[in-house]
Amino acid sequence: MNLEKTGKQCVQRVHRFRAPDTDGVWVDAIMDYGWDMDALAERMGLGGRYHGTFNAIDPHLTPKQFPRYSSCGGCREGNKTNEEIEQCIQPCYNLSFVLEWERFDAEHGYQLVYFPSRPGPQGEASVNISAWWLPAPPTARGPAPRIVVLHGVGSNNNHCGVQATCFLLRSIGFSCLTPSARDNGLSGSSTHPEITSWAYDYHLDALGAWDYAVEDPEGLLGGPLPPSKVGLMGFSKGALETAIAFGLEQRAPGAWLDSGPYGGLFGMTQSVLSKALGRRLGDFLARIVFFWAKVFTGNRVDVLKPLVLLHNCTPGNVRNVLIAQSTLDEVVPIKYAGIAISTLSGLPSCYSVRTFTPPQYCNGATHHQEMWEFPDDTRRKLCDFWSSTFKQDQALCNLENQPDFQTWSPSKPLPPGSPPTPILS
């Protein structure tokens, strides 16, 4: 076997197939060994499981249009009637959630804004980043706290997890700023537009958004806020990049990290190849692929280690962190949530750690589905975490007057077809 040739083939073919939040690296590696793609997807449990998870949806859609157009929870992408929506989201969640989401976004408005990222790690210029500004309803108390919410890989800010969660956040009094990372959506190009970096520079887009949310330099957000009133949130690879941003920007008071692959590209490649091929061969191939990934990306993968950055904290500056993930997640191994929880919980002088790990299964998808499968539980958890982070009374969330959407409960039978809930030790 020519390892150099094989490794190059693996990396050169990365962009021919992309599985959610993984860049498809291991899939191409196995394809070069003659595996049948359909058989591999079936063997790995990938077949048909990504509706509403991997959403590179048209970035020109407005937040008002998004709920009806999106593929969240198992629907086809495209405009749909109420009857079509109800048919495709059942039995996971109900039409009332979508209709209220649509009504809310139409009533409370939104705006497309632009701002610079922070400069690159090797002196690269800032990138022009686009974002949806999604304000909470105005109150007499003045500007609401703001949360920067970052999407996962291969997507943009018109991402199901981002948009649905921001609907819940806005309804309880928190505003959202949702950037599209460089090379995605309506944001500008990086110096490597054909290369998807990992833990190299996407976090700078989240930090540029955080700076903009704090400073409001154009006066479009309702005025500047203290850094203690602007938090960070990310989904999947966006959680990896958000964890890095949170480690670097110690003025940020809190971060909600949802389903993050904290082991980076190598960890994801190793995990999935080992699942498909066994530990020894999977680990062997992962190291080959990762070596050449570093070569062909110009060392733009796994440059920063999020948990190492977070470990190098300032004692006495206790900040809030929430680690969220489905215990049934088939995209990002649940072990990464466990590693993050154990690492950060061991630093009580730096972090107050919360968790949210319901067993999510929505029409075959298992990766960050909580915001529509368990919307009432998620809304309560969002209120609890962000109220604590911003040091404000939970009563301001007005939870008792919020509509009920939830069909299922983690403590009761889940939707038909759900895998058994694992018993975590």
What can be said about this structure in brief?
The chain has 425 residues and is α/β, with parallel strands linked by helices. Helix content is 37%, strand content 11%. Helix 1 (3-12) crosses helix 11.
Describe the overall structure.
It is built from 15 helices and 8 strands. The chain folds into 2 domains: 1-47 and 265-301, no CATH class; 49-263 and 304-401, 3-Layer(aba) Sandwich (Rossmann fold). It is 37% helix and 11% strand. It is globular. An 8-stranded mixed beta sheet has the order 1-2-4-3-5-6-7-8, sandwiched between helices. By secondary structure, it is of the alpha/beta class.
Cα end-to-end separation:
41 Å
- Strand content bin: 5-15%
CATH superfamily of the largest domain: Alpha/Beta hydrolase fold, catalytic domain
Known CATH architecture of the largest domain: 3-Layer(aba) Sandwich
Number of strands: 8
Radius of gyration: 20 Å
Describe the SSE topology.
Elements: H1 3-12, H2 25-31, H3 37-43, H4 66-69, H5 82-89, H6 95-108, E1 111-116, E2 128-134, E3 146-150, H7 160-171, E4 175-179, H8 202-215, E5 230-235, H9 237-248, E6 254-258, H10 264-277, H11 279-296, H12 306-311, E7 319-324, H13 335-345, E8 351-356, H14 370-373, H15 375-389
Parallel strand pairs: 3-4, 3-5, 5-6, 6-7, 7-8
Antiparallel strand pairs: 1-2, 2-4
InterPro entries: AB_hydrolase_fold
Biased composition (Pro residues): 412-425
Region (Disordered): 406-425
